[in-house]
Predict the 3D structure of the following.
Amino acid sequence: MDAQGSATGGQLGSSQPAEPGATQLKPEALSLLDVIMQAITHIGPAIGIATSIAFIASLTGITSPLAYLFAFLLVLAIAISLTQLAKNFPSAGGYYTYISRTIHPRAGLLTAWIFFLYDPLGGTINMAFMGFILQGLLKGRYNVNFPWWITFLILLAIVTTLIYFGVQLSTRTLVVLGLLEIGIILALALTGLVQPGPGGTTLHPFNPANSISGTGLYLAIIFSILTFSGFESVAPLAEETRHPRRNLPIAIVGSVVFMGVFFVIASWGIVSGFGTNTIGALATATQNPAVVVAEKLWTGAYWIVVLAILNSAIAVAIASANSSTRVFFAMGRSGSLPKQLTKLSPHATPVNAIILQTIISLVFGLGVGAWIGADQEFYVTGTFIALGLIFIYGIGNIGVTRYYASERRSEFNVFLHGIFPIGSLLILLWVGYKSLVPFPTGDVKWSPIIFGVWLVVGIIFVWAISRTGREEWLVKSTESMYERRPGAGEAPHA
């Protein structure tokens, strides 16, 4: 099937919606490896550990690896629940489609509203933080002032170009970048475990009693959830993936398992390499801890780690943009957003959605970064994104149980559709509560307020739409559930 022909239900450059069973995007473009690396690079192995380890260490001390471990187990349960929707609703709408279909279009619209706090900003804050790391490194070692926003603009130009010229080009780039950064960071972690700093290599980082405080551990776990976020980013690529009902669940769970092991080993290695007896200095280091440990263990070769982090920032931004632009496209196709967002480039990419994503990145990345600093932009934004993810993941879990308890009751499985989604929902709520009570201090105290205001505005918006009596376009949100014809070896789903 070709994106240019009538079989797709639309012409390139057209904003007309596709007919049922067809897509305007490029079908069958992505393999299982492509979507696995989309998820892994969206999570961001190198930039994930580089941007989170100092903050998490400031909250929980040497037990940083434990925070990653607890977050991994929680996210794994969420990922397993997500697969139950991904295999039934392969759509570019992702969670927007899932919630619209399993709960109600209004809930889907509210989920999309919360989504706007997440994927459109995820790559943005990573690019800004990479600029912050590079600026500090060049200033501290060579007395060269290279403003963070220049790095940000360069990275944004690279990302926009790659995603415009086709999903295959951008995802193939992710495969190369992802494998490179994984190898470098694992090598650094293993070096840290073999050549530890003061305190040696021990299992003390996995003992909760060694945490600075219980509240700090809870907040570290919730921030670690943000570090793992991205596994769900394969869902909006369903219409461009081969055998999506089979490959998306594999990519979702496989990426979480791999990254869980990666983050635990990487954090353990960096904490050990820095020195468990001097962990307080890690949390307050002027240079990024991963770079500090690399320079300590690899001397002049520390630049390899800097390149891995830079590489990772590009990969995260590409993966985030691929995901967010497909959701913009799906919402435009359903009528929930302007239909101009469905216009395609000659490369079968949603060109207007890409332009929108680039504008969001420019305005937010430069504006907030100039206001509070690129580093605080990352921490404050990352925390309210994590709160948004609790909402999105939680309502998705409710959708799983509701859908299988009603429409697919004959397939209801007590573990897959009961214990996993409801159990992880309760844990999400508990971790969220404990991270807010007592209320955070410092700049991060604004994160819950920002999320709360955004949520209230979204609820008012959805309520106002419902009071107009003209919800036809909202009900159309379920139509963004692009039900693909099963590929070879795939059984049809109702």
Residues 207 and 468 are 55 Å apart (CA to CA). Confidence is low (pLDDT under 50) at residues 1-22, 480-494.
